[in-house]
Specification:
It is a single chain. By secondary structure, the chain is mainly α. It has one domain. It is built from two helices and no strands. About 15% of the residues are buried.
């Protein structure tokens, strides 16, 4: 659930940022809206993928750490 809220926040910020850039550039409002909406969708998908990748990396690191700790505890009594 946390990943979705982060992705929505990134998409909303991207929408308004791209809309502002289009407005400053002098494009018509409809063009700004279309481009901002497309950019927001791309930002949403990218943010979801990034959050999933970061979560996978962190979970893998936590599991590896626990496995190494268990190996050290098990080998500690044999030395």
């Amino acid at each position: 659930m946390q990943g979705r809220s982060i992705a929505v926040s990134v998409a909303v910020m991207s929408f308004f940022g791209l809309g502002f850039v289009g407005w400053v550039s002098g494009h018509p409002p409809f063009t700004c809206c279309k481009r901002a909406l497309a950019g927001a969708m791309i930002a949403y998908i990218a943010a979801i993928l990034v959050v999933k990748a970061v979560n996978a990396i962190l979970i893998h690191a936590m599991i590896s750490s626990q496995q190494n700790q268990m190996k050290e505890e098990n080998s500690g009594g044999k030395d």
